[in-house]
Design a protein that fits this description.
single chain; mainly alpha; 2 domains
Length: 421
Amino acid sequence: MKVKRIKLSNILSLSHYAPAIAAVILMLISLTASIAVLWTVILASILIVITFNTNIYLRIVLISAFFLRVFLIFVDENFGLLPYQWDGYFNIAVAIKQNLIEGVPVFNGMNPPGNTKAYSLLASFQYLILGNINAITKVTNGFFASMVILRIYQLGLKLFDSKKVALRAALLFAFLPSFIIYSSLDLRDSLILLVSIDILYRVIQYSDSKKMSTLLFLIIEMVLMAFLRGQNVALYLFVFLIYLLTTHFYHRPFGYKLTASVLLMFVLFVFLKWLDHAGISEKIFSYANLVVSSRDLGGSAYLQGFQYNTWFDVFKNLPIRFFYFTFGPLPWDINNIFMLLSFFEVLFILAFAIFTVNFLRVSNGLNKYQLLLLIFCLTGLAANSLLDSNYGTAIRHRLNYIFVFFMFGSAYLQRYRIKFL
């Protein structure tokens, strides 16, 4: 008996019946749930339209990733599966919405932390239109996650000129457990990750096209990032500075590189001494110590009680803090089931970090955009590792950078025809 094969295109065509299915569901559930379902259908429809002309396998990854998060949100809303609301975004957003209705200043009667204001304000517009339904913000974050996956595919295609490498990198990151969980919560991380990756994409796009519209989008996104997580703007500008210096010296003779490196080290030494003399270093360390002490609390804390007093402390402790931040939790810090599961995920991340190192070792050199991506990853991980001392925070913050390991790792495995997917 001949079994008829089901085509992927036929599977995807079922998504066109989503509105009709949703209409039936809406008649059977409460008003609040109906609005959440309707919002899900709208975002799913937008996702289908955006990806209409893309690789069919990519469409499956994007749509599956979105509905997996929607399912997780549904389970969480009904059974309280996941911890969330660390920063109280929902309550802040609802209060902002009320202020907007009453026509008073947006943050009247409240004093939210500066880094929560922009995200809460954006969420309040959703609640203003759709009502105080926390699930719709979570679903929106799930949609942002799908857009992140799409950008990872597009970056991979641009940097490695291989659909297989791009698709594998997107697939691996799409279903990374920590990314699934944190992009299903009412947290700003999905939006920050999307803006961060899009900034990278726009930089590369502008470098190729020199279009003013691309530059305008890049500026808008940098301004948005300033409100979402201001320190990232300074970090990304620093990344671009390192990239420009590196590309300038990349193909120079060894003697030229050595001389320039010594000169740059001397300039850095003089600059740090000036910061000390001007009293700026003391303020920087005071802020850093305040942040570190606020993050080394709880059962998932690591390297507790650390303080910065000199620039030597920064450079001396960077390697160990980098390792804990990027590849934690480490076995001796595991004290609950969630940390154990995170440890297994870290083994997977570590494997692709090793594949990345192998790619760099055997390659004949990186193209300029691969170099930018690598600098972005390593600089971002290093900068965040200096301040984070809690695995829960570290796992969230490193998502902004470890997708790079999956790109280079997939390229390495593709080069040696290791068919893991």
